[in-house]
Predict the structure.
Amino acid sequence: MPSIQFFNDGIVFSIKNQRKKANWIKLVAAKHKFDVKELVYVFSTDSNLLGLNKEYLSHHTFTDIITFDLSTEKKRIEGEIYISIERVKENADAFGVSFQDELDRVMIHGVLHLMGYKDKSASQKSLMRKKEDACLSLR
């Protein structure tokens, strides 16, 4: 049975309509022929994600999301996704979108990483954005 869990670390925050959000994520996975085994979202602060970024990725910059792939089988999603709520709010303002739309984009961005999509090159970023948009349309 798939498990999608939502936690917070260092902040007061909760996902509204958790069941609906989990069902959307499972639908996205199924459309890509993936099964969700266990997916944990941790909503946190800029400083906590900066610490993770330094410790695990040797990056010394702020980020909105860090994704850890823990899967051991192909086409199976198992991982942890850490999201900076501060960064999501700032990006929503910068991009002129609602906080909820930006949060959903970041949440599904992490799932796409767990399915193997990358975003290092310009072409990868372009494909990632198209995939995000397609996934957001399924909400």
The CA atoms of residues 59 and 88 lie 19 Å apart. The longest strand covers residues 35-44.
